[in-house]
């Protein structure tokens, strides 16, 4: 589990950014959603970096449209065909890439050569058995952990060290919904509304709109969710899953306005979240990606690892 903050919405920031921060407004929606007021004031005070963020709002040069992206990632074609399409398209729409990433904690080898790409417009799920390194992957993508070996590329540029002011590359990466902070001490409404409900009687159909507006102001473009629905009842899970969808560029709120998050990555064990909030899955097992496919392929895959995981069977290659 990622447990960096007790805040349900944690925008990644850096030491330098933090030291520049000076003001906060705890009552504003802005600070409620961004949670890191340091991040906000960093943007307010640093015009150069704000320019970088604005620059990234434009889609990649060869990116055609959200519609073409939706077709590519939501169509019924098989993963193999999708791979061909992607190769033909090139990597101009790749926002984040992990290339042959290794990570150990002491003697424990956790990641043993993890490679995958997150493209503009994608809703990607990272699934796999407990303790297999899913949260570790999120932390590495976020720039909070350094791989022992291998590289992370942010919009084609190699990250060096931890996330830093100089390494934003025009892409904001936000880490949202840490389970450790969720649902234990807050009600579902507070969680879903990112504490909005604390001082507001705003109906739920307005919440996602406020979330989107605030995220737009902060400039986040890729969100990483670590087990956002862990411990929730099925109905509350649905509300959270729909909120995740609604802030995505392929989602829309009750008034039909599109979201503005380019891509998101969800670590989850919940089948409902896989089905409702994720388009493409990567399966992590024993420190490697052992399967990638569209969500609809998850339950029909002939891969024994995926079959066992999807059915919850005790029989199969995954041993505890
Ligand atoms: N900072 C750390 N120091 C030492 N060990 C760590 C550290 N972070 C993670 N680990 C270990 O690495 C392994 C993978 O942890 P991680 O949280 O990434 O797995 P996960 O797949 O997200 O697990 P789960 O599905 O149970 O949340 C675990 O055995 C964990 O105890």
TrEMBL record:
Record keyword Cell inner membrane present: no
Cross-referenced PROSITE patterns: ABC_TRANSPORTER_2 (PS50893)
GO molecular function: ATP binding; ATP hydrolysis activity
Top-level division of the source organism's lineage: Eukaryota
Database matches in Gene3D superfamilies: P-loop containing nucleotide triphosphate hydrolases
Descriptive protein name: Protein TRIGALACTOSYLDIACYLGLYCEROL 3, chloroplastic isoform X2
Keywords associated with the record: ATP-binding, Nucleotide-binding, Transport
InterPro entries xrefs: AAA+_ATPase (IPR003593), ABC_transporter-like_ATP-bd (IPR003439), P-loop_NTPase (IPR027417)
Keyword Nucleotide-binding annotated: yes
Pfam families attached to this UniProt entry: ABC_tran
Domain ABC transporter: 96-311
């Amino acid at each position: 589990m990622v447990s960096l903050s007790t805040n349900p919405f944690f925008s990644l920031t850096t030491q330098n950014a933090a030291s520049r921060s000076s003001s906060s407004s705890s009552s504003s929606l802005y600070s409620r959603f961004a949670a890191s007021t340091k991040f906000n004031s960093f943007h307010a005070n640093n015009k150069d970096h704000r320019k970088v963020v604005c620059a990234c709002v434009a889609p990649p040069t060869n990116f055609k449209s959200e519609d073409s992206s939706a077709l590519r990632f939501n169509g019924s074609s098989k993963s193999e065909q999708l791979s061909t399409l992607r190769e033909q398209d090139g990597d101009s729409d790749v926002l984040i890439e992990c290339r042959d990433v290794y990570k150990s904690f002491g003697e424990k080898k956790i990641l043993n050569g993890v490679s995958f790409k997150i493209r503009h417009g994608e809703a990607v799920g990272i699934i796999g058995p407990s303790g297999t390194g899913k949260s570790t992957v999120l932390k590495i993508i976020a720039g909070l952990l350094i791989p022992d070996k291998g590289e992370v590329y942010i919009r084609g540029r190699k990250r060096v060290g931890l996330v830093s002011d100089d390494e934003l590359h025009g892409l904001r990466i936000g880490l949202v919904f840490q389970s450790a902070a969720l649902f234990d001490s807050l009600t579902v409404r507070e969680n879903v509304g990112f504490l909005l409900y604390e001082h507001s009687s705003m109906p739920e159909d307005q919440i996602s709109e406020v979330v989107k507006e605030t995220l737009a102001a902060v400039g986040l473009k890729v969100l990483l969710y670590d087990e956002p629905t862990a411990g929730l009842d099925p109905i509350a899970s649905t509300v959270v899953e729909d909120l995740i969808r609604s802030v995505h560029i392929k989602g829309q709120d009750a008034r039909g306005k599109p979201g503005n998050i380019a891509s998101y990555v969800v670590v989850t064990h919940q089948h409902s979240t896989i089905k409702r909030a994720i388009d493409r899955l990567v399966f992590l097992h024993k420190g490697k990606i052992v399967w990638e496919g569209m969500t609809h392929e998850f339950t029909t895959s002939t891969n024994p690892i995926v079959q066992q995981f999807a059915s919850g069977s005790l029989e199969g290659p995954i041993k505890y």
